[in-house]
C-alpha cells in the first residue's frame, strides 16, 4: 500500500513538504508542490480523508437529531437539510429519537448538530455548544453565541387562526393543546389565549399530545357531554384530523356545526373531506436554512442569524364555507 512516505521519496522532498503539497497548506514552492502531486499521481496515492480529518479534528459531517423519521412534517425538514448539504462537501448523519442521548452528539463525533428532539435536555445542548461544535435547535429557544434557535413564527400563525374564527362570529371557541413539554405548543397556547383575552373571549382548553388519537378522544368526550363549541383550534393537524373523524362519526359537519383549524399544513390536510384549514410554513426552507447557517458558521465563522420562519393561514373547507383557492 502506497504511503505519503513513498510519495515524498519519489518527489525527493521531506514528508512534511509532501504533506503540505497534498493538503494545500504550508509555504512551499509551486515547483515542489507540482513534483509531489505528480509523484502522487504516478503512485496512485490518495490521502486517507478519514485519517486527515481526525488530525484536524474535523469530520466534515453534520448530525441531525430528530424526534422521528415518519410523517411528512419531519420528512420535508430533512429534505430541506439534505438539499442544502448536497451543495457542500459535508456529509449528513440522521439520528432518530432514542432512549439514551446519542454518543454522536455527546462525544462531538460530528462537526455540528441540528436538534429537533425534545427528549434531549436543554442543559446538555447548552453545555455541548461551542465554537468548535455549533448547534442549531428547531424545537426550543436557547441563548448562546454558538447556539441558533431557528423557530417557527408560532405567534403570527396562531393570531391569524384566532381572528379567522373570531371574525366569522365564533365566540365559543375551544383550544386543543399538544404535548405539555413542547415549546411550539406552549407558544401557540399562550398566543391563542392572549388574543382571546384581549377580545373578552373565554377559551376552554383540552390537553392532547399531538396524535390523531388524542384529538379523536377529546372530540368524543366533548360531543358526549353535549358541550359543542362554535370553533376549535388544534395545536397541530394530526389532532384536528382526529377531531374531524369523531365529528363525522357523530353526524356533525365542519364548518356548519364546528369550524376547525389545525397547524402545520401536513400533506394530507388538503386531501381531507372536508379539506383542513391550517397554519402553514415552508419546512423545506426551514431545513435548508438550518443546514446553511450551520455550515456557514463551520466554514467561515459567520455569525448565526436568529430569525422566525414565516407562517400563514391557509383557509380551507373545515373553517370556511367559501374558502379562497390556494395559489
Helix content: 40-55%
| Multimeric organization | single chain
Q: Could you name the CATH topology of the largest domain?
A: Rossmann fold
Number of helices: 12
CATH architecture of the largest domain: 3-Layer(aba) Sandwich
What does this structure look like?
The protein has about 325 residues and is an alpha/beta fold. The protein folds into three domains: about 5-45, lambda repressor-like DNA-binding domains (434 Repressor (Amino-terminal Domain), Orthogonal Bundle), CATH 1.10.260.40; about 60-150 and about 285-310, Response regulator (Rossmann fold, 3-Layer(aba) Sandwich); about 155-280, Rossmann fold (3-Layer(aba) Sandwich). About 40% of the residues lie in helices and about 15% in strands. The chain has twelve helices and 13 strands. The strands form four sheets. Strands 2-1-3-4-5 form a five-stranded parallel beta sheet, sandwiched between helices. Strands 8-7-9-10 form a four-stranded parallel beta sheet, with helices on both faces. Strands 6-12 form a two-stranded parallel ribbon. Strand 9 (about 230-235), helix 11 and strand 10 form a beta-alpha-beta unit. The chain is elongated and about 90 Å long. It starts with a helix and ends in a 13-residue tail after the last strand.
